[in-house]
Amino acid sequence: MIPMLLSIVSNYSMLNHILLRTIMTKIINAGILVAMVIAIIAFGGCKDSSTNSTGYQNNPTPPSKTPPPNTITISGFAFSPSSITIVKGTIITFKNNDSVIHTATSNDGSWNTGDIGSGGSKTVTFSNAGVFGYYCARHTSMKGTITVQ
Q1: 0.70 exceeded by pTM
Q2: 100 part of a folded domain
Q3: Same domain for 136 and 76
Q4: Residues 13, 41 within the same domain
Q5: One domain, residues 33 and 82
Q6: pLDDT (tens digit, 9 = 90+) per residue, 108-129?
Q7: By C-alpha distance, which of 105, 139, 137, 110 is closest to 122?
């Protein structure tokens, strides 16, 4: 009977040791996982884009109120700029900032944006050299010139 009791106590002690080791391993693994998540949040993926590789802060460029270089805006029933010089192959964007529909139509009929709604834009690619007068087909007093070199 005593050998049987010693065997039970020994097996209980061994099971207790295995269980304790399993629990401790899980606690350690959970701690490592938490530490990794904290490190990723603190140091990875959160790079400040205003600091360059030398550590100096870049001055952000303020938003420009001028249109991109190849954009002609339509505002106040006028094209702006009303005259522009470009090179062959340039794409011009006509951007309508008025509350009414406009067009940009060449005087010789070689190109036409069609209707450009309020807030909309259309593009025209200029492949040939020359001087192109244009107007708004809906408001013929609106005029401009594009010189292609």
Answers
A1: no
A2: yes
A3: yes
A4: yes
A5: no
A6: 999 999 999 999 999 999 999 9
A7: 105
